[in-house]
Write a sequence for this structure.
């Protein structure tokens, strides 16, 4: 019935979609197995992509040739660049999306890839022979053979939904849980755990009073995610903001005795940085209000996402509390919020390629690895799909370094440090964040994507043009020099110190109060010089000038630490022979089995002295 596949991807969420698309676009024959063809790329939580650090990840996925950025651009209803008031390393794109259009665009994109086949069924087990995965077994008893398997099960593995004192099996509301895989993997020697996440109620936008809320408009000149020729949104929708209050908190407290989180019925740990509203009230008792973001679910639906009100309290308590929020006095609820517990597998059991250490050619991506967030899942799916294809076709493993991409930081953190709560990305997790900006993801990664066979020749040419133009503009800025009599009047108008001798525009731009925009507004000749360069090009050049010393310093540190990455450790290295290494260090090294000294240095519990001893022992 089925041919022999190169790669089977289990689950069609954000990780599964990127994994299937990557492997297929690189030339593998792929089968995507999902429990429901109608929920491919479902935005299970908020209908948004990007945000702090997450926006950088989406840009990196796009630069490598993944599809999340393109799909996001096609379904955007609002675009904002967050943290504009901070340094360029903190700027983070975020898009509000049409939930239905996002899923539709993903399905259409996958159906347009000839190498992707689909099968609607639950995968209940893996086919394993001699320590290698050879396919999957479905709930209907169908066995399908493949050279590699990527598991992207999301919250479906033994998923348990909680609303107040009620609980029932499910991977999402109205969708059944997946069973069988966890038990088999534990039998094969894997360690498993439980995690928890949650979602807020959905409400009828027609019942809300937006006039009393704070409007959150989009950017006036919206950007986009993809470096391809997608278009920024021609029209946009506003979001709104309101707040909880003491009345809301009092009503919510009446349900605490029935809260599955407080009564101990939920065993899994929830995301620290996205707590439920009852957790916020409990942990931040001194706060008399919390922000609520009112986010439309699409262009043509009245459904609204109540961001900031995730909860698993009884539905009647949720409803009563919502009606005390300003603007929600007459709210009609579509469905209550809920918490969900699910199985995950600590990611220290993986290689940096996301292949499992116990079973060859088996890859894990997304929430099965203990992460949370569409973007984190999508980038893991991309990396797993690339590596599954490479392994099957005898190509080199694909691993991104911490100094190359946020994706490299995320996977390195997971594999070397593990996680005991849902992991999400922040700019603070990246020690090279000045290098890893959202504006230069294409310059950093397009060539890599092209060499992998994912990014097109057109993308590569576009990136090279951008790079060349940015360098040309920087040369013009260095060559354009002002004498004091020509520029001091302009500098005084801007409110910055005047000059006493000739100075280049390049050196003047280093001043924080000077920008190309405010300078060109006062200098017509500069405005003419900048005319051939679009806004993106000017921004790129200005960042390069203002952050030059920081970028150079960070690059030197990255290059120095990169030396440790060149010292490979053999797969069968016997750490017990090196007694000078601390006992904890030896235990962690034996468990993780790092590929390089650099990776060893980042393992929690391995001290700098342990790495020095290891380096001496290896004769380095």
């Amino acid at each position: 019935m089925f041919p022999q596949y190169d790669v089977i991807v289990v689950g069609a969420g954000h990780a599964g979609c990127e994994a299937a698309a990557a492997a297929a676009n690189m030339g593998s024959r792929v089968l995507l197995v999902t429990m429901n063809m109608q929920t491919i790329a479902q935005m299970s939580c908020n209908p948004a992509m990007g945000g702090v650090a997450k926006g950088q990840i989406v840009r990196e996925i796009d630069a490598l040739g993944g599809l999340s950025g393109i799909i996001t651009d096609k379904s955007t209803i609002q675009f904002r660049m967050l943290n504009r008031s901070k340094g360029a390393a903190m700027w983070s794109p975020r898009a509000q999306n049409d939930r239905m259009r996002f899923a539709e665009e993903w399905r259409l994109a996958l159906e347009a890839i000839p190498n992707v086949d689909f099968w609607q069924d639950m995968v209940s087990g893996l086919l394993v022979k001699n320590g290698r995965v050879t396919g999957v077994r479905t709930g209907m008893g169908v066995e399908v053979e493949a050279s590699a398997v990527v598991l992207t099960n999301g919250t479906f593995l033994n998923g348990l939904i909680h609303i107040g004192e009620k609980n029932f099996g499910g991977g999402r509301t109205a969708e059944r849980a997946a069973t069988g895989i966890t038990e088999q993997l534990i039998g094969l020697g894997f360690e498993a755990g439980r995690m928890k996440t949650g979602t807020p109620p959905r409400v009828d936008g027609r019942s809300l009073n937006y006039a009393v809320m704070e409007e959150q408009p989009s950017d006036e000149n919206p950007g986009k995610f993809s470096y391809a020729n997608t278009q920024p949104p021609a029209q946009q929708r506003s979001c709104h903001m309101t707040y909880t209050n003491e009345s809301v908190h009092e009503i919510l407290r009446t349900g605490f005795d029935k809260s599955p989180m407080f009564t101990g019925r939920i065993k899994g740990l929830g995301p620290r940085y996205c707590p439920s509203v009852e957790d916020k009230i409990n942990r931040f008792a001194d706060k008399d209000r919390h922000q609520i973001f009112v986010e439309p679910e699409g262009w043509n639906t009245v459904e609204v996402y109540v961001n900031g009100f995730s909860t698993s309290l009884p539905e009647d308590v949720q409803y009563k509390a919502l009606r005390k929020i300003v603007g929600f006095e007459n709210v009609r609820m579509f469905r209550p919020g809920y918490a969900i517990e699910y199985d995950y597998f600590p990611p220290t059991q993986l290689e940096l390629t996301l292949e499992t250490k116990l079973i060859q050619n088996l890859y894990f991506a997304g929430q099965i690895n203990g992460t949370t967030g569409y973007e984190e899942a999508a980038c893991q799916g991309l990396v797993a799909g690339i590596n599954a294809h490479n392994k099957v076709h005898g190509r080199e493993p694909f691993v991104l370094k911490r100094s190359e991409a946020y994706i490299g930081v995320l996977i390195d953190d997971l594999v070397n440090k593990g996680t005991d709560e849902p992991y999400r990305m922040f700019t603070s997790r990246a020690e090279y964040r000045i290098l890893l900006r959202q504006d230069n993801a294409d310059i950093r990664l397009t060539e890599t994507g092209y060499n992998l066979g994912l990014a097109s020749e057109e993308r590569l040419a576009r990136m090279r043009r951008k790079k060349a133009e940015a360098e040309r503009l920087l040369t013009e800025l260095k060559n354009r020099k002002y004498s004091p009599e020509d520029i001091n009047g302009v500098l005084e108008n801007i409110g910055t110190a005047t000059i006493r001798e000739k100075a280049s525009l390049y050196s003047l731009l280093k001043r924080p109060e000077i920008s190309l925009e405010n300078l060109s507004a006062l200098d017509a000749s500069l405005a003419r010089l900048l005319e051939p360069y679009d806004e993106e090009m000017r921004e790129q050049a200005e960042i390069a000038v203002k952050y030059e010393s920081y970028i150079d310093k960070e690059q030197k540190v990255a290059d120095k630490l990169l030396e440790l990455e060149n010292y490979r450790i053999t797969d069968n290295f016997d750490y017990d022979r090196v007694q000078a290494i601390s006992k904890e260090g030896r235990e962690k090294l034996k468990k993780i089995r790092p590929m390089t000294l650099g990776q060893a240095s980042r393992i929690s519990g391995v001290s700098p002295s342990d790495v020095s001893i290891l380096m001496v022992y290896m004769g380095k």
About this structure: The longest helix spans residues 457-479. The mean pLDDT is 93. The longest strand covers residues 143-151. The CA atoms of residues 228 and 459 lie 7 Å apart.
